[in-house]
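Worked example 2:
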Amino acid sequence: MHWFWRTEQTLPELVEAVHAKRFGARLVSAMRMPRMRPRLVALVVGLALMAFITPLSPVRAGSSGVVRGQVLDADGDPAVGVDVYVSVPARPTLRAKTNERGHYRISGVRTGRVLVTIRAAHHQPYEERAIVTSPGGARVDTRMVPYVVYGGRVVDSRGEPIAGVRVRPVIYTRENAPGAYYMRSDPGAAVTTDHDGRFVVDLAAETRYVVRFLHPHFQPSEQTSIPRDIAHSVRDARVTLRDAAWISGSVVDTSGEPISGAEVAGTWTYWWPYGVLEYENHVRLDGNRLSHWIRTDADGRFLLGRFASDRATIYARAPGSIIRRIVIDGLKRGQERSGLEVKLEQGSHSIGGVVTDGSGLPIDQAVIELVTDLERVSTHSARNGAFQLTGIHLDGPVRVRVFAMDFCDLETAPIDVNSGGGIVVKMQPSPVWTGKVTDASGALIQSGFQVRVRYSGTWHVSRSWSMSDLSYSSQGAGGIDVTIPANRATRLQFIADGYETTETKPFEARPGQRLQGGTVRLRAR
């Protein structure tokens, strides 16, 4: 068959000829096919190439095309002044605005696949992938969907507008515990008030929000009566912030040189409504709340604000330095405490000790960690129960938490990291729940199932919802033992494929206790 397909042109040149509809004389001159008339050759080859090549390459990238269309608002009227962007890989983004009739036209677009993005103030952005052909181009029309608008003005207690307030919508998400919620920031929707204290934030419809107002010279505030549908959008809200104290200063080393990029935070002495935390921006220490860490500038300077009481605790840290803690008294709301100098000293501490059971025998592979979010330090005990927590950059008393298989969790009393002495951690054996798992008829469930241990009665603690997954397979005898890792009110949850999840009633579990749980019956779904 080599004599049937011999050409002096490359395949791309033939494809170009086909798209340009030049599959007459050009293909005839290019092909050397004996025993076939030129016109018949052109017709056969042209039809074959159009049927095979054209579906695979609908457009030829590189030539110039046009993207056009019309944008309407939610009422069907022309949307005037809307931004339209056309993005092509490895090319500058092209931009245009809609005219008084909502029309737009962008020329000079490379043919091929493009991304068309349409953005209008207080409306959800619209995106569509289109194929630009030449000379036809592409047409993209849309009707914009508005956001729920929440806007207004922020003033102080004297009625004066406050500029520079950070207005941050926070999505309220329900957890699986009745009445328990956590909040998640929506950073893309955050704005800052203008010189007249005015703001407008865009919110997704049918979403529960609170809106948080932050400024270093004022106490934070949260607004909870936020509209959830477009019809009830608010543009005239009035938010009043109460005065707070703020602290400015610098972080230096022992020689007095400023430390750029050091982290500084201060405790707050009040709580947000609902007692929730914004986990990505805040940490917790000994029951107090720390504001988010801020970094010092090139001259080591910092500013911390939002202090509602006359006392504040400041923490400062830098890589390789001991974390410094300073208590400041005499703060006054509406005033600045300036000139604070925080000196950081290089170095670290360590805590050593041994983990044993009630009879003094060592416990191997116990997990030992610091009870703080200022830094994460943990280790494991050796075969003889010995451990050494190194690289501790905290000063003063700290607590240590210990976990070990088949033993109750334990948290020590405060330990002075400067004492240098070893500690002895004595752990108590965990309680054990013993029972059987059957179906509704009383037959033992032979397939594998999962048992989860929940700590009830302390729902306000985040750890109460971090379940410890303990998987067991039912034995032929039908009995299972579930080790409960803590001495507190507990409930068990049983999960098996094809059955409804079942929970036990809360019960008290004491160290070393063996609890007879009886039979747990799972109902088929």
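The helical segments are 11-19, 25-30, 38-53. The chain has a mean pLDDT of 78.
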